[in-house]
């Protein structure tokens, strides 16, 4: 009999609520012969306030033993900006070499979008997850004085860029439209830009069926609101990916439905799956949070672990639920979870 | 009698067409007693291809003698990405210390926007223009090999950040809503983020009437499409400003109407005014380009030089023209210029 050994990190704010629903749907969709084991970890603001710890070496050793990680949300106004982000979220992405940060965007019929005319949106962003301006390189001199200088260093390696570009080409090749767009700012960030562009063009030769395209990140934000249908797969740097995936989420149904996977395709370390939204402390504990993004993240998790049929059922359940949502009125977090669990089981 | 001694840089693609209309409107709006002198410069792709030059020391000396610079657009597919951007546009911004990159966004009634429900949009972005990831710091080792490493260094100084933050507070103070939002990514780019945030909070104390706000750049792209009315004045770093102003232009009428000023408030060097759009080689020479963004840039130029009444007349003429546009059918570049010139003169 098979087993799925999951690390669960509810985290802060609405994290606990949405993760509960994610697990509910996971249990409902998993085949009977798969033994689901979950272990909860208490990372986040509470533990940081109590102990000063964000993520220790012992924590990393413990997490390593799981097949995958499901995360709710990390972040709280009581903790200074950057402490949990750099000390937990980014530390984990870097420690487990989550270099493929996968963020699909699909606008379903009937789902609200701020864009006029309900455009067709169905693309996936492959965001590099371990390099660029996210490495923490840089520093500050003469801090707090009028002569302070602060630097941030974006680090880009051929090794790091090639593996994510190759992953994105393979994903584009597997989709019906077979189109891959590189998003960068190679006219200004010429050092990193040339590296990305040259590797992209070289790897493209190995995928002759994939149509390629390049656009600057500033222009990409324009197309995301005027012509999102032009995108199929996008590959981009860590920071540009951070920015355009929030915009992509906003135009394709909101961050309430935006899922993400922090993936290590080699499976050397467990991959982590999390909704794109944050901890939303203003609505925490009120049963108002939408668990859909977490449920879709569970779908990405299942697909990553080889449960493609189960992942398809989750996607179909969410699609059906979203399409009918306008008629359903306001539902609580657990009501939405119940509805999705019923659909995937049925 | 007064004089206005203008450097004119038509540049590439549609640059010549839109600049002609900008000058047409400028002549029409200027008071009779102001002697307008213009000198045209041939910077851009053509000169680069002929001479290999983008902007020489002698060029900078010549430009320095003008009161202001009007630029159409620079860039052509025949020139490798980055050559004209770094060698001309950015070189000029840095040489003339254009640290206030001003980009207003206003959605006028009846103007097409990709957003549903015609939201209220009336804000201005103050983008830092001489620091951040735009300095050209960084480099490449082992170029072209599998061991290549490319870095980009974002440089942020207390001096550079404080002057632009102060400028933005003054602009917010002068507007009815008196609200200033800092956009950064201080939870990840903690070195630069702390510098920006600390200076922002310190300068805020000198402007007690101004309401302040902080949001991450990724979240800012969400608000720009879901709730653009929340913005009044935004101050941000060079790269974040580049990205969000293209999105801002897209939602508030398109880049055909987005103006910008590269301003040196000390007037030590002439400031440069240019439409946000590029050279659009695909429609160049066909009379299809919209000169509105250039005309609005002329308005920013006039306001910078102290011609506030004339700048108001340009804004009003553009507002009237845009509001009636849907009924007017397709017009050529020069027809739009003629209409605007007639309005400001009348
Ligand atoms: C919270 C933050 C560190 C994170 C990021 O910048 O990657 C978030 O914005 C995201 O997109 O997952
Ligand atoms: C052309 C390029 C150098 C420029 C920039 O990145 O600043 C442009 O995108 C802009 O916004 O003015």
From TrEMBL, chains A, B:
<keyword id="KW-0028">Amino-acid biosynthesis</keyword>
<keyword id="KW-0963">Cytoplasm</keyword>
<feature type="binding site">
    <location>
        <begin position="278"/>
        <end position="290"/>
    </location>
    <ligand>
        <name>NAD(+)</name>
    </ligand>
</feature>
<keyword id="KW-0464">Manganese</keyword>
<feature type="binding site">
    <location>
        <position position="218"/>
    </location>
    <ligand>
        <name>substrate</name>
    </ligand>
</feature>
<keyword id="KW-0479">Metal-binding</keyword>
<dbReference type="InterPro" id="IPR024084">
    <property type="entry name" value="IsoPropMal-DH-like_dom"/>
</dbReference>
<feature type="binding site">
    <location>
        <position position="242"/>
    </location>
    <ligand>
        <name>Mg(2+)</name>
    </ligand>
</feature>
<feature type="binding site">
    <location>
        <position position="127"/>
    </location>
    <ligand>
        <name>substrate</name>
    </ligand>
</feature>
<dbReference type="GO" id="GO:0051287">
    <property type="term" value="F:NAD binding"/>
</dbReference>
<comment type="subunit">
    <text>Homodimer.</text>
</comment>
<dbReference type="InterPro" id="IPR023698">
    <property type="entry name" value="LeuB_actb"/>
</dbReference>
<comment type="pathway">
    <text>Amino-acid biosynthesis; L-leucine biosynthesis; L-leucine from 3-methyl-2-oxobutanoate: step 3/4.</text>
</comment>
<feature type="binding site">
    <location>
        <position position="103"/>
    </location>
    <ligand>
        <name>substrate</name>
    </ligand>
</feature>
<keyword id="KW-0520">NAD</keyword>
<keyword id="KW-0560">Oxidoreductase</keyword>
<dbReference type="GO" id="GO:0000287">
    <property type="term" value="F:magnesium ion binding"/>
</dbReference>
<comment type="similarity">
    <text>Belongs to the isocitrate and isopropylmalate dehydrogenases family. LeuB type 2 subfamily.</text>
</comment>
<dbReference type="GO" id="GO:0005737">
    <property type="term" value="C:cytoplasm"/>
</dbReference>
<keyword id="KW-0432">Leucine biosynthesis</keyword>
<dbReference type="GO" id="GO:0003862">
    <property type="term" value="F:3-isopropylmalate dehydrogenase activity"/>
</dbReference>
<feature type="site" description="Important for catalysis">
    <location>
        <position position="185"/>
    </location>
</feature>
<comment type="function">
    <text>Catalyzes the oxidation of 3-carboxy-2-hydroxy-4-methylpentanoate (3-isopropylmalate) to 3-carboxy-4-methyl-2-oxopentanoate. The product decarboxylates to 4-methyl-2 oxopentanoate.</text>
</comment>
<feature type="binding site">
    <location>
        <position position="218"/>
    </location>
    <ligand>
        <name>Mg(2+)</name>
    </ligand>
</feature>
<dbReference type="InterPro" id="IPR019818">
    <property type="entry name" value="IsoCit/isopropylmalate_DH_CS"/>
</dbReference>
<dbReference type="Pfam" id="PF00180">
    <property type="entry name" value="Iso_dh"/>
</dbReference>
<feature type="binding site">
    <location>
        <position position="93"/>
    </location>
    <ligand>
        <name>substrate</name>
    </ligand>
</feature>
<dbReference type="GO" id="GO:0009098">
    <property type="term" value="P:L-leucine biosynthetic process"/>
</dbReference>
<feature type="binding site">
    <location>
        <position position="246"/>
    </location>
    <ligand>
        <name>Mg(2+)</name>
    </ligand>
</feature>
<feature type="site" description="Important for catalysis">
    <location>
        <position position="134"/>
    </location>
</feature>
<dbReference type="InterPro" id="IPR050501">
    <property type="entry name" value="ICDH/IPMDH"/>
</dbReference>
<keyword id="KW-0460">Magnesium</keyword>
<feature type="domain" description="Isopropylmalate dehydrogenase-like">
    <location>
        <begin position="5"/>
        <end position="340"/>
    </location>
</feature>
<protein>
    <recommendedName>
        <fullName>3-isopropylmalate dehydrogenase</fullName>
        <ecNumber>1.1.1.85</ecNumber>
    </recommendedName>
</protein>
<keyword id="KW-0100">Branched-chain amino acid biosynthesis</keyword>
